[in-house]
Amino acid sequence: MKYELKRIAIWPAVKISFLVHLILGFVVGIFYALFFALLMSLPASMGDADLAALSAFSGALVVFLPFIVSISMAVFNTIFIVIGLVIFNFFTRIAGGLEFELAPLAETAPVAVARPMAPPLPTAAPPSPTEAPTAPHSPFSPPINTGEEPPQAPSL
């Protein structure tokens, strides 16, 4: 099946782009914060008193830098995505859309996965309600209650 991509809706792409870049920016901001905190702690560990105050600033930087990077990355990258989508939609209107072909799942070859087959478990048939359960009876085992009265010994 052939399809043609003629237009990309801007608002759904903006929402997805903003959320993805917000999360990605937070992760990148954590790495930036840890890197700058490490760099700012080096002069304080060498005993330089003037630069020791700078290491106090690194604590605030570690806390706020992930949020600053995530918001700025989300805003700026979303603006670039919007500009790119406007340009894409403009050129697809003039030159035509992008053609791509999709194959239905039935035409694709199935991937064979070799798994050992377990033999089916034997199932025991439940006893019918009319049959009394039969168990081996020894002289030392208690009598089986079948609902009948046991035979009476003859009285003398």
Element layout with pairings:
Elements: E1 2-5, H1 10-45, H2 49-95, E2 98-101
Antiparallel strand pairs: 1-2
Helix pairs in contact: 1-2
Characterise the protein shown here.
The protein is mainly alpha-helical. It is built from 2 helices and 2 strands, in the order βααβ. The chain has helices at residues 10-45, 49-95, and strands spanning 2-5, 98-101. The protein is elongated.
Helix content: 40-55%
Structural class: mainly alpha
Number of beta strands: 2
Q: How large, in whole angstroms, is the Cα Rg? A: 39 Å
Strand content: 5-15%
Q: Major beta sheet, specifics? A: 2 strands, antiparallel
Distance between the termini: 100 Å
| Average residue pLDDT | 78
Order of helices and strands: EHHE
Shape: elongated
**Largest beta sheet: what is the strand line-up?**
1-2
Would you identify the regions where 5 or more consecutive residues have pLDDT less than 50? none
Number of helices: 2
Task: Pick out its properties.
mainly alpha, 156 residues, 2 helices, two-stranded antiparallel sheet
Task: Briefly summarize what is shown.
The chain is mainly alpha-helical and 156 residues long.
